[in-house]
Amino acid sequence: MAAVVFRDAEGRLLTVRKNGTSKFMLPGGKLEPGESAAEAAVREVAEELGVRLRVEELALLGEFEGDAANEPGHLLRSTVFTWAGEVAPDAAAEIAELRWASPGEIADGAEFAPLTRECVVPAL
């Protein structure tokens, strides 16, 4: 898995909820064969949000492991990047809803994915 942290001027993080799920998470997804984590992050963001990034614009935040948000009993490993700049995302592909949330809202909110809440927010 690969994901990207986008922040707005107030420091809120962009989270997404995929179709048929209840948890909000960072935009991103699974790597395709032969794809690097950064390449997957760029591709997934383009598919899910219509936002075009370049690999060299990403900064590695870290590699994290946590409970999968929508698959109880499964662990998820994700490489998470940050990106600096303003975005105007549109929900596309499998994205049902976009939500900007403060780090405090995410840390305290059960509606956010465990990996985002327990690993990414503290790393920021």
UniProtKB/TrEMBL annotation:
InterPro entries: Nudix_hydrolase, NUDIX_hydrolase-like_dom_sf, NUDIX_hydrolase_CS, NUDIX_hydrolase_dom. Residues 1-124 form the Nudix hydrolase domain. Pfam families: NUDIX (PF00293). The keyword tRNA-binding does not apply. The keyword Cell cycle does not apply. It comes from the Bacteria. Its cofactor is Mg(2+). Gene3D superfamilies: Nucleoside Triphosphate Pyrophosphohydrolase (3.90.79.10). Keywords: Hydrolase. Belongs to the Nudix hydrolase family. This is Nudix hydrolase domain-containing protein. It comes from Nocardioides luteus. The lineage of its organism: Bacteria, Bacillati, Actinomycetota, Actinomycetes, Propionibacteriales.
